[in-house]
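To assess whether the prediction recovers the assembly geometry, we first specified each molecular entity separately, as shown.
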Amino acid sequence: MLSKRAGLWLGLIATLGLLSLGSSCSKTAENTNEGSTSEKVKYTKGDVGTISGTISFTGAAPENPKIDTSADAQCASKSPNLTAETWVVKDGKVANTFVYIKEGTVDGKKLDDYDWDKPSSAATLDQNGCHYKPHVMGVMARQEINITNSDPTTHNIHFLQGKNPDWNQSQPNGAAPLKHQLNTPEQMAQVKCNQHPWMKAFVGVMKHPFFAVSAEDGTYKITGVPPGKYTVIAWHEGATGPGTEKPMEVTVPANGSATADFSFGASAGLQGQPSSLPLIAVEFPMLGKH
Amino acid sequence: MSKGVHRFALLVAVATFFLIIAGANVTSHDAGLAVPDWPLSFGKFFPQMVGNVFWEHGHRMIAATVGLLTIVLAIYLQIREPRRWVKRLGWIALGLVIVQGLLGGLTVKLLLPLWVSAAHATLAQLFFLTTVSMAVFTSRSWTITEPKIFETDNGVSPRTLCVASLALILVQLVLGATLRHSATWNQLLPTGLLVAHITGAIVVTLALGVTASTVLLRHRDDRFLTRPAIVALSLLFVQLMLGIAAYITRAASPYQPQPLNPMIAVTVAHVACGALVFAATILLTLRVFRVLRVEKRTVGVLATA
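The predicted structure of the complete assembly is given in tokenized form:
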């Protein structure tokens, strides 16, 4: 039998062991890669076309709530009138919608079975005015993401665990850009700042380059698409969520273009596990915000 | 018996209560990973306290203070406390606070896995139990009181009821901690855990209600027992009200752009009041064990009489 003191020491040693194991686990998870591109071929024909369209909003656009940035004086000074970016709607057209080809066939082969070149330049995610610019973006798997901090305060950029591992780094004001890449395709990876909990962004991670984000006028354009029949998805974050997806079947002719217009309403799913209990939304405006 | 030891033990218990409030604020503000390194914060002992860093680093500072206080208490007990088992309790408290600190580090290093966060929150309550017990054991009222109430073993003993209530409250605290850490402010709470926590509230209400009522009915003239029973019942009522308010504000939270003050205040108060219900029940249980003696009733003797 172990004495009580020995048991206590064993407990401490076990906890320390877990601590070191945790550190090593988080490092190895970052090195995870998915699949290999060695057996894939490139699409070299010059008969590519485009998919374009407009994202519309059905009904009256909800007002984005104002964000209280007073917890950080630098944020309050730089962005005194910051609002949530859930619905960026202008003249009935919706920005920040991620449109991508989910699946399709090109010359009898699946789109994902081709080897698509990654963009030569890194994508940029900037922290500016205590919010992310852009709010929604797309990258190819393993494409480098350049994370910059244009604010006079410290942020921590936190890619939440989804199909890609958790990644949480601090970035003080004036620090060099951070480099990150997401190795596994994921729609959509979520980014947040734990120091400023209102800050969030979404990143679509794709195997191929056929994606776009709608602009302020609601338009988007996906270029370089080989002729074929595709399922195109328009994703929007919705009220709180991992978002709502709208699918559409699209045929792209050789050297031609196809149009895919989508529309969204105010209703959207919630992130996390759904609760079947009744939800009571109560606001306490007299008590103010954090 | 040293009055100084008791006062210091009380200080540690009160400081632990504030530490629980600070920890609850970290969770409600979603500040758990605002400082990505540990044990230092951004490589410093004292970083700039902006945004959620205030809550996360503030929690670390209070935790470090409680750790230091526990070290001093453990040494103080070795010097001034005559009872060996109380001295040993000082070392147990120190061991618990060290493990608790390491678990806090693990939450940061492992990026808040649910099991570590829930274990951290649960151990916080167990450490609180230890510090409250030490404050009770070193108090004058504990040392001067002798066993004076003798009950026959017909019916359920208040001792059994108190232990059952205490265990159920602990289970309820674990459920609450797991529920809080299973979803951030912008996510819906998982239905299964939510139902379990609500069911737990009903069970605890019944158990503590029966326990306190039994004590109040059987020993209504003994303030040593009735005081903690009344306090526990009153706190339980407040806790139930706070629980309802916490549910309402937390249910609305995912629709907000950031954690709002009403949700933060109510959920933190709910955690704090839960700890107080636990503390009052610990006090009641310890006092019941101190003064009540259960005499075995022998059937043969009664038959003869």
